[in-house]
């Protein structure tokens, strides 16, 4: 059994039968520690820079002056601020919003709002527009930084940039251009680097959005663009290294680059969640490189396991969960629970249900084993993992199925509804029949009615 499945099974079985909370130990595949983003305000996320609003409090009167170019229309005053859902509906209905010219601040705020609410395609549009507005500043930085070589950059204060909190990127860009025209390479580079700080955040968000949309190649490219400006950027380093390890498991050069990135995160941020995870991942990457790639590493581990089983007086079942160390569990527990991670896990559950409905049980199981260690109380994931194991006739299936029907029978029944809605009526009835047989006291009338349809 691979480690992700062992982690997921352990999470389900360790608390039996009470309520339960690209081989990739000790951090499961799909773990993506993403940039810290502001928590949604009561009622939903608000654009970056919006003042905090107490729940239910009336909003301030609308500004009397004109809105910035490209800003969507704002509705009436004297009401509580709109929820994220209401705001998104208003934005969605604003004709031509995507094509309007926007400042960096407006485009990045729109991108962040869509990103925080799981609307990655729209988020990518606005985040790309924001980065386009910053291109001239970035170009100056790259050119001036090249002139300086390895010399350290001064801070904006030391360089006398004169920037103030909340100053618009366009205004800071004017200062940067003026310094460059005067031949002040050090000053231009220092001011440009300070001006690009919010642009780096936008870049990491865009890389994460690409990753969550399934485009790993684009995500790697954008992480790389962030690191071109700030080579020690923690989130970009960890994100790129994780993706390289997941997607380039046979490319030794890419694996070595991933190991160097993890080592840099560990060195610069030893106490952070990413730093703790990076320390363990450095060892795993080195082991993978030494073995000659992930395939050879897994083959070697399988051979070792075969030898151990052959030497054991009473060999454990082939599906018995692999023993987990406290270090392995800590790596899961220490992973930062960001909105991006939660959105990614929800997407994995939805994909797992689609796999189940299409009879792709191994693919479904792979999805659920990436979710359950982080969300062992997720009834949908618990039910899906149990049904995938039952369908694959794995030896551990009875135990995991037993936990699922004892702790989340409603979620198991609901999975049948999902399978039927997705066209797998045969699978739905098979699930309901097994649920009715193994949990005779649960919703007998309801299950019989579904089975008789």
List the helices and strands and how they pair.
Elements: H1 3-13, H2 84-92, H3 104-116, H4 120-133, H5 135-148, H6 169-181, H7 185-195, H8 197-212, H9 216-229, H10 234-247, H11 252-268, H12 273-291, H13 294-311, H14 326-333, H15 339-357, H16 361-371, H17 379-392, H18 397-407, H19 409-421, H20 425-438, H21 444-451
Helix pairs in contact: 1-16, 3-4, 4-8, 5-6, 5-7, 6-7, 8-9, 9-10, 10-11, 11-12, 12-13, 15-16, 15-17, 15-19, 16-17, 17-18, 17-19, 18-19, 19-20, 20-21
Helical segment count: 21
Question: Which term fits the overall shape?
Answer: flat
- What CATH calls the topology of the domain at 3-21 and 342-451 is Serine Threonine Protein Phosphatase 5, Tetratricopeptide repeat
Structure classification? mainly alpha
Radius of gyration: 26 Å
List keywords for this structure.
453 residues, flat, 21 helices
